[in-house]
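Progress narrative, work stream C.
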Amino acid sequence: MKTLVRIAAILSFGFFLAGGLLLVGLAVPSPGSDALPIMAVALFFVGTAFFAGPMLLAAAERFGRTDEAK
């Protein structure tokens, strides 16, 4: 279970960061009227990556091994 939560933490961080950086890449070259909302969503994704990933990793560290619990 601990390994599964660690993998989920890495995947969560990676997917949110990749999505945020992709949206930043779309918003920066076109400084039109709709660039600001796209940039806001992109920064939300990047912030979520830096919050959800470490929180899942901290949750993974709280799990003990079955032989350590006894």
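Work stream C, second folded protein:
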Amino acid sequence: MKQVIKLTNRQEETILIGVKQIIEVTTMKMANPSNSTELLSYTKISSVGAMVSTNYVRESVEEIYELINQ
């Protein structure tokens, strides 16, 4: 199992998340920033460090699972 995974956030930037710090992963729909009538799927990841952080990423829950278990 990997310790850190690389994902793409909703601003198309790459972020790194420590696998052991992930406490919740949820799929959700949000408006497309460039087209407010279009809904995009994102994955909400809550992770813990000194405080709880939340990131919204493009990868699905299944893709994140595969990244962790490669």
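The chain has a mean pLDDT of 91. No further action is required on this item.
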